[in-house]
């Protein structure tokens, strides 16, 4: 009799515990982060993750999204496209409300069919132009499409009197897309491509590439590599005393590159879509909170991760429910003001493909830091 009573008590406790867990789950909104936490993309992925984690922490402290706390699951894709695809498959099985990552364009590309079939809004950091040219309905960028970024930099080169450029790029989805977009914009402005130099992902020795670039009859050099490769290239470039202007995008002048390259990065110029040094109190306050939380300065990837989570909150609240289909329809063609939604840090607009438009910056590296030299307005394409 005692044994039966004990079993009944244990059974009731188990049922109560299960009911409690179901109730807690019902009060949560599940997000999934598929990110590069090891391998060649760890520098970018770890920054993106920290931005995501900071946003989740702040949103939960303020009451969550429509009264629900965010429950975040993070998995490392090891910077490998096929592992990123496997991680995405596991994520889809968990039926999250939204996903974030990857950073690398090649990994995003192989996960895209899974995202679309499952109809899960996904915020990515990759910039390859082809990602949003495939008719995806649930893919959204946290950074510029190369087709938006490259015209801004090419226009600056033209205004600066540059007539010829040597182009150095990395032979992956990011690099080829960026190279193609930049060459198109240079040619449209009558700027000659004096050399077209491809390099390999993970390349360690850039001596041949820098010699080829130095010998090219070019007024300036445009470099489009991933962050760690960019740092190695700049160090090799300075060793041979290259003294012509060097230009790039966020991947050349991001904080991780500056930390790795040290003095070799000084003088490099670039166009960036996001910077904690932007002349904005909201962005600078984010930069201070990020440094307090993690002990390091955020680069553009940290901002991307943070803004991605904040967009999930803002769009969901505009929809008024956790409806993934309505979420995607609402974000396409939408505009948001930072004065109304300070968590977004900047005004932003999305087009019908998931590409964004907002102000951006020209910077020069001085004493290991980005110094903003010009604020560029949105292109107004979305």
From TrEMBL:
The keyword Ligase does not apply. InterPro entries: BCAA_transport, Leu-bd, Peripla_BP_I. Residues 36-368 form the Leucine-binding protein domain. GO terms for biological process: amino acid transport. It holds the Pfam family Peripla_BP_6. Keywords: Amino-acid transport, Signal, Transport. The keyword Signal applies. Belongs to the leucine-binding protein family. This is Amino acid ABC transporter substrate-binding protein. It comes from Rhodovastum atsumiense. The lineage of its organism: Bacteria, Pseudomonadati, Pseudomonadota, Alphaproteobacteria, Acetobacterales.
